[in-house]
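Support reply, case 0932

Customer input (verbatim):
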Amino acid sequence: MNTLKKTLVLFTLAMGMALPLIGFAQSLTDGEVKKVDLEAGKVTIKHGEIKHLDMPSMTMVFTAKDKRLLTSIKAGDKIKFMVISEGGKMIVTDIQPAE
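Our regenerated output:
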């Protein structure tokens, strides 16, 4: 019985860590790259609604969490991206090509 309890606890912890990742994947937003400023670490994106931030569709400049996110994109690329609000700034944490 002790082994069963330990297994259930580990399973519960694992699911607790996995569920936010599932929500993360579902929070990707469609966008089109308008401009990339690699030196400044900024990207201008025309995007659809960002539901988890309650933000309507618009074109705006985002800061990249890591400049390396910007090395494989260019103006005109269709993308899916993840953005978070950190200290009042909109930070792009992931960029993937749209399929």
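We compared this against your earlier run and they match. Two observations from our side: The first strand starts at residue 29 and ends at 37. The beta strands are 29-37, 42-47, 58-64, 78-86, 89-97. Please reopen the case if you see a mismatch on your end.
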